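Blackboard transcription, Thursday session:
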Amino acid sequence: MNEHAVRTEDLWKIYPQEPHPVEAVRGVDLVVAPGEFVVMAGPSGSGKTTVLNLLGGLTRPSRGKVWIEGREISALPDKALAKVRLSRIGFVFQSYNLLPVLTALENAEFTLLLQGMPVAERRRRVRRLFREIGLEGLEDRRPPRLSGGEQQRVAVARAVLGEPALVLADEPTANLDSATADALLDVMAQLNRDNGTTFVFSTHDPRVMERASRLIRLVDGRVAEEIVSSDAG
Amino acid sequence: MNRGTRDIWWRMAWRNLWRNRRRTFLTASALSFGFVAASLMMGLMNGMMEEMVSNGTEVVTGQIQIHAQAYRPERSIHDTMGGREGLDVGALVAVAEAQEGVTGVAPRLYGGGLVSSGDETVGAVLMGVDPEREPRVSRFASVFVEGRMPGPDEVAVGAALADKIGIAVGDEAVLVAPAADGSTANGLFTVSGIYRLDLGGFDDSYALLEMGTLQDFLVMDRGRIHEVAISVDRVRAADPVAERVAVAVAGLSPGLVTEPWSVFLGQLYFVVSLASAMNSVVAFMIFGMAIFGVANTMLLATFERRREFAVARALGTSGVALGRIVVYEGLLLGVVALAAGAALAFPLLAHVHANPIDLSAFVGTYSFMGSAIRPQLTVEYSFQEPLVSAVALLGTGVVSALLPAWRVARLPPADVLADR
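(Written on the board underneath:)
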């Protein structure tokens, strides 16, 4: 196993805007060990989402480097980067972002399908996870016929089913009521605990922060503070 | 790409197509209308060309002709088939008639002369025909406004020629012509009938005589003829029939030339070929215009879904795969439009084919390149035209999708997800 699930070095993201470029991320150094449950917190505009995008290879750093399981991804060409995302990174977005033309089951198995997994194995995995996270019976529903909590659980299923090294979740509870958010966090905590899946969150939500094994506060694109939970380890 | 991923791209493309049914309906309708318009225009153009070819070949010439090699273009009276000795006309006719696709064979003899009545005289082509066989190749026998085909010592003339010299059925006409032996032949013939082909050149300057009568008149043996005209079951398939006939008759006499109408009516063939090429241009123009409209709609549709594409990209879908979904959508849109267009076009084409649009209230019959064009719009169709339209339509769907596909393939996922 690699020593780090993800590591960054002097990570910068500068958006060229007039009249002044925007420095969204300014020199972030970060190391996340496999199986960590890391939360990045900070006010709006602090750079949380941008850091997640950089970690996930959705955007390229203006300066600095990102490693996923020891492999530097910052300079990879688009196609190779897509492969890394497909095989090693899972995403959970704030507004669910399920593909509306696919059913819950098809959404969940989407990455497995791209990975080329046989249909029987795909279906077996999806159905098992759906049972575990309370989505049984909803397999054939399309997103508009699912509640927000159900959609977000499908999104989590989609993110973790491919057994990625790292799941990046961008404010996953932002659009959920308290009970639903708690249930969703339970699901992710369980996956983290049982499967050793590494989670990196960005959030404003104190409930998410409470569950973090490590809390990283970002301010103005910089790491301002790191708090390691006493429960961690 | 494995089967699973291929299936999912098609599935997504198909479902995406029906997310905005009204837009899909309107876009597909535009393409369907293009298909109907292209099919109808090509069908009408074909109908006009078919009319030209039919009239150009069925009225007088036939679809295949056999001559002596030297006969054309001078058309000398001496250049009969088999030379001055002539040949066995019966055998030649029988061999030609036995070939697959041949529906009629008629021998002909030509001479140039004068037709007179009273003080009036006009120059005329004297055409020797076999009254029994000629109706299977030309329309002379069916267009008599008065009287009938000529028998021995009779002549039939066109209506315009009859008017010029003031003769009617039963009158006598004097024919004068240079004979094959160098003498000047002249004789008195009874007018057996007056025909009207409505074809310039034939109604005012042709005089028909029974073959034996004209051979005797021009001092030529029974074995001497200038032409064998042949009709075939399918006008457009005259070329291969001509090849078969040429092979079959080659042994009967040296120097026989067998030509299909595409050769001896070269100008007509050129016009028909041009029209055929025009059909492709018409299809290209109609669907070329449609491409811009459909591409614009697809750009809009993909722009509205750019967030979904960005998500799929973030999940590891390659840009090429996303572009493929859009191209599949374009192709499926084309298939839907084609199905609807075909459902509309084929009954319409069949209807106009069975019920030509009569334009006689606006224009009369027109003679063009030796062909009488009736004032009606009819549709002729084959597999080729709908196939060209179908390929053009499906191509339109795919080509329209290329720009949207290219843009989707290059979406920056982070920027799109951040609504930047």
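Lecturer's comment: The CA atoms of residues 64 and 146 of chain B lie 29 Å apart.
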